[in-house]
Amino acid sequence: MDIGSTLAKHARCTPEKIAVYFKDKSYTYDRFNREVNRLTHALIREGINKGDKIALMMKNSDMYMIAFLAIMKVGGVAVPVNYRLTPREVAYILDDSDSKIVFFDDEYSEIIHQAGQVNSKIATFVSVGNRTEPGQKRLEEIITNIESDPSVYINESDDAEILYTSGTTGNPKGVLIDHHRLIHVAYGAGNNLRLNPQDNLIHLAPLIHAAQLNGFMVPGTFFGCTQVVQESFEPVEVLKAIEHYKISLFFGVPTMYNFLLQVKDKEKYDLSSVNRCGYGASPMPVSLLEKAMEMFNTDQFYNMCGLTEGGPGGIYLTPKDHKTKMGASGKSRFLMEARVVDQQGKDVAPGEEVGELILRGETVMKEYYKKPEATAETLRNGWLYTGDLCIIDEEGFITLVDRRKDMIISGGVNIYSTEVEQVLYMHPDILEAAVIGMPDEVWGEKVTAVFVPKNGKKISEEDIIAFCRTELAGYKIPRMVVESDQLPRNASGKVLKYQLRDEIKAVTSNR
User: Fold this and answer.
1) I need a labelling partner for 463 at 20 to 30 A (CA). Which of 164, 166, 243, 442 fits?
2) Phi/psi at 229 (nearest 5 deg)?
3) Measured between alpha carbons, how far is 404 from 213 in angstroms, rounded to an integer?
4) Cα–Cα distance between 26 and 227 in angstroms, integer?
5) Which residues, in sequence order, are CB contacts of 506 under 8 Å at separation 6+?
């Protein structure tokens, strides 16, 4: 089974049902499948064979979905590219992935042109808009009028995607996913989130990211849902779309929930169609979670704690478990096993002992593409070592406390940034916050809080420290507090803590 054949099945069984909305356009399943087929046959005419890599440097759109599914149908391997990258970074991914064709939006034609000048592997550059640079084609030049389903047989063992990690510690690594893993991610979404054909989904996070692409778009297509695509995240437009399209399942990263809560007249929008909400990509402070439940007037919230290497897959917290375990990350998802182990690979004792989360299951990546040493380091004896530090309680609930590389060691004591961040988010005047460790001559590292105040609010360093003192042990209280206009984030919404460290080093060295 593969995602392309399920799209064709829905086109036969429910041809008039709306498959996709994007801006002022809508597609029935019949029309959507025909549009995908037109591009699939174009790829065949361009010489694409099974296993060939095709890059996508595009924002969320109907054309992104069409291009991705055409790649699936032709047996190619989709390579989503973060559109925030520089030409050098893009060139690295295009070269490392062995991409033969790259599709891109108008606004990225110059970046693609520069990247292509140092990459001879790319045979075809295709703009899905109107702007092109020398050597680039427009989509209209290659598209066909053949609307029939292609006769390409896809095996579950055929490769489907290479998803590049954030690259926070060097060059990004390509996570290789095949059709078996992709379909089982969809199975898992159906089981975990009660996904069904009656659901209306909305795509807000970039479809270059595993959570939105594999966690929601692929399952949405697999189950025959109606999918609403938003090009970018604009809080007011999101609320309007939820009301207009009667969205039933909402997913967002914590930052999105935070910004929706800042909309002054949010109460005027009818959000009653939403009966389930998911969040992920980073821990969600309990105070923010409680406000989000109030805004959507539902307690049907799911914590989706996973990672790209997991497909994405990992652990999740059900709505029922939120009632007693709110703040925890959860237990194993469907088709996934989870353990918390020490440095020798032995299970840690339940309670306060911190260990590393490891995963095993049907959706775990095949490998890091062309990186056998990195693969061997991460995949050991069938288990995926995530680098996430966690605790596990007597009932088997796991709580993420930090990334291994983000743990702060001050005076020989481990301090977990997530715990301090939870407290900072309780402050009524703080919009966003991140906690990092900065070098300290005496203690090794000092707890450093970076915060963004809510509009018009003035908060002093003394005020924040005093607030933290009421909620945290003395050694966990920030020793340095820095105000910022915004926190640097990657396309998936995760705070780039290495960038924060560099920025603070630059500021303090100039004093």
Assistant:
1) 442
2) -105, 125
3) 26
4) 10
5) none
DSSP one-letter code for 304: E
Query: Residue 178 corresponds to which amino acid?
Result: D
- Contacts with 89 (C-beta within 8 Å, 6 or more apart), sequence order: 82, 167
State how far Cα 9 lies from the chain centre.
28
**Residue-by-residue DSSP string for 30-79:** HHHHHHHHHHHHHHHHTT--TT-EEEEE--SSHHHHHHHHHHHHHT-EEE
Asked whether 270 and 299 are in contact (CB, 8 A), the reply is no
CA torsion angle 260 265 267 271 (round to 10): -50
Q: Please give the share of the chain, as a percent, with pLDDT higher than 90.
A: 73
Q: Specify the DSSP element, H or E, that contains 453.
A: strand 444-453
More confident residue, 338 or 417: 338
Using DSSP, state whether 375 is helix, strand or coil: helix
201-249: pLDDT as tens digits: 999 999 998 999 999 999 999 999 999 999 999 999 999 999 999 999 9
Cβ–Cβ < 8 Å for 496, 168? yes
Residues 6+ apart with CB under 8 A from 1: 156, 179, 183
